[in-house]
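QUALITY CONTROL LOG
STEP: pairwise intake check
CHECKER ROLE: data steward
CRITERIA: each record must contain a sequence immediately followed by its structure tokens, with no blank fields

ENTRY 1 OF 2
RESULT FIELD BELOW
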Amino acid sequence: MNKQVIVIDMKIAFIGTHGVGKTTLCFELAACLKRLDVSVDVVKEVARHCPLPINRDTTLDAQQWILHTQIAQEIATSQAYEAIVCDRAVRDNYAYLVHATGRKPEFEQLIRHWMSTYSMLVKVPVVSPPAFDGTRDISVDFQLEIDKVINELIADFQLETVDLEPSDRNNWIRVVLRNAGLPENTPQLDLFNNINNDTL
């Protein structure tokens, strides 16, 4: 069996408001990339480790900490892996800042530059209310307000996104792989499926 050789250097970010399944998608995609023998790591959501207030009680200082920590984590991770999958992009973090304190032109040049470092942005839609996980705000109104700000910033920054369809959750990862130019079925899974079929 000829092994497919995949040369990759990418940074994919799942973007969207909280409680829409970005974290789950990050690990699903990372697992697919590992099966393709791609060296990959996930940049986890840094807001969960912020020592300052977040959610509806956030402050400018808190959002600055989150924004710069996200950038630092992405820089560090990208040095060691062929691909990184990000749970949020810096523009997401900026949306929470905008919601709390209004737009800050002094940050936008940095954000516009940093958004150009992502290979692909995947917009995850709101499909259900947020569930409490010890950190996440469960207000539906807050969830939708952040989603609205994110969409406004996508339009204003003229960002290209892969928009996932709310009704097609089972195929979201396939859509991401297809748009990234990667096989939708990994070699290991194909082999596993062939073995199963032979034994039936």
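ENTRY 2 OF 2
RESULT FIELD BELOW
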Amino acid sequence: MKLYSMPSSGNSYKVRLLAALLGLRLDIRDVENGSAELAEARAEGRLPFGKAPVLELDDGTLLPESNAILWFLGEGTRFVPADAVLRAQMLGWMFWEQYSHEPVIAVRAALRVYPERAAQATLERMAELLDHGHAALDRMEARLAAHDWLVGDGPTLADISLHAYTHTAADRGGFDMARFPGIGRWLERIARLPGYVGLHG
């Protein structure tokens, strides 16, 4: 299978992380922001929604959206609970990640990291994203202060999904992660999983 992956993107990284944890070999096609490879993949119709990641199956089927790809690769593995209630709770965290976490944690990081977005990084916008991001992290901390994992007794796709932008929230986003010791311990647990790779691994 081919993975059209933006190396600097947490959404692409979460797919690479799950593949590494499962021991899956993917043919990685880097389509970094602003690159000729990204323009080419778009022109060839490889990115149905115009962005990475996209998983291309052996028969040519294209699967866009990071959490949908996680579900496809994770189904039937130890990262998807057998219990229906736990599965629903896992999906709840994954929906929340794209609706309430990524739009603030990832966006603040992008405004700091990508030069072409620097003009959007006004003091007011950055302060607002910082406040909303800390509120999202508070939500995670409320769970992880007393539990090892977001759902159940072991790592699930929810942990992989939310790890992607959380583990770089301090360096790239400028968030004060010292405020969230439960999240810190959780990040350490994920980093100890066999096969783990970081964003640039």
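INTAKE CHECK: passed for both entries
DESCRIPTIVE NOTE, ENTRY 2: The first strand starts at residue 2 and ends at 5.
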